[in-house]
Amino acid sequence: MIKKLWATVVCIARSGIIRHGLVVLFSVLLFSCIKNRKFDALDITCNEALVANISYQEVKNLYTDQTIQIQEDFIIEGYVISSDKAGNFFSVLHFQDKLMNASEGFQIEIDLRDSHLFYPVGSKIAIKLKGLYLGQSKGIYKIGGVFSSFGNLSVGRLPASIVQEHLFLLCDPIGTINAPMITLQEPLDNFLNTLVQFNNMEFIEEELGETYAVSAEATLRILKDCEDKTLGLQNSGYSDFQNETLPEGNGSITGILQKENDDYFLLIRDLEDIIFENERCPPFVDEFTSTNILISEIADPNNNLGARFIELYNSSTESFSLKGWSLRRYTNANTTIGSIIDLTGHVIAAESTFVISPNASEFEIVYGFAPDLSVGTGSAADSNGDDNIELVDPFGVVIDVFGIVGEDGTGTNHEFEDGRVVRNASITQSNAIYSFSEWQIYNDSGAAGTINLPQNAPEDFNPSIR
Questions:
Q1: pTM
Q2: Which of 175, 197, 14 is nearest to 97 (CA)?
Q3: How far does Cα 462 stand from its chain's mean position?
Q4: Considering Cα of 193, then 199, then 200, then 201, what sign does the dihedral take?
Q5: Which residues, at least 6 apart from 239, have a Cβ–Cβ distance to it below 8 Å?
Q6: How far is CA 194 from CA 51, 239, 284, in A?
Q7: Which of 136-140, 199-203, 294-298, 436-440 comes out lowest in average pLDDT?
Q8: Is-contact 271 262, C-beta < 8 A?
Q9: Residue 111 above 80 pLDDT?
């Protein structure tokens, strides 16, 4: 009943039938009928005279590298896209330049409760910028009051007593904000501080069963799309939906796009911005196995222990992600793993090598270039010539091996102490069973058919060349 009466009076006020005094009288009457709520009394009469005289981009261009106070009689206008009705926004009003296909957005910090009653979503507003402060952080532009921290000025909330001196409701009818549908593959900076929609989104499995926010705490929940790309959803611990459980399905989410520390996140107005009615995405697979990845060289130089390395080779015509892959070393005759190198996060280019060094600084001094991956001493790439090495795929399957696990290499056909192991150039596929015929092996003993010829760095080695 109250909402209907309120809408009627606002409509009449905008049409010019009712005068300012009656609107204020009604506001007082309305507020007095609501228990345990406090409102900031504002003049809600719409303004027909204000016209924008500066663009969003021109306002942004005023900012250099620190918060400034705007001294000129500039006016910008826009459409409200946020609402504090559900309590997920506090003392801030977001607005953008157009109802649809928006290209720019701003936020104004205001010390005003229940601003949705005065500036509902879709209403057009004008802001007198003279005297306000302008700041920017990570592409997010703010206007408002000011506060000082350790001598540095930052944009803060505009006191409620002067909000109506700067922020005006225009007489245009309330419009419908059409949020564009975008994906996480697009350049998101183009949509900052505007209302957007993402489809095929869902909460990550680890957070299912959780609530939207921890009580009284700002809480970041994580969304992902079906390509496993993620996006934050920041919720207030004071919002009306704080204690609601996150939905398990998949679907669309609409919100205002924000950014902090290079991470993007959304702010929703209420739970109507989330429609998760579809089945969740099928499991996303980004870990793969391949027999085209193999060990191509292992080094234990006779003259410099710091110049040791292991080289891998990709024999395929496409680059390959090593996500989930690892190298394992079995020391001497041990059957338990002595050390592991996690290769996740690295890629081997097509028909190219990947060099791993336990001493990157010494490697670069000796060979004249940096290794592809630097690991620590004592790692799987730091063998003294009688250890056994396995290359393992993301599913725990041994793809390639040098040596025989459980057999100390000393005096065998897989000893490379003070020497070098080189895979024959004709071998382009991995082999999970050690085969002596696939290798040229140099050492200081010549045992079991190996080559008794210690190798010195750098002249006897060619890391990165297959």
A1: 0.66
A2: 175
A3: 39
A4: positive
A5: 86, 87, 88, 212, 213
A6: 22, 21, 29
A7: 136-140
A8: no
A9: yes
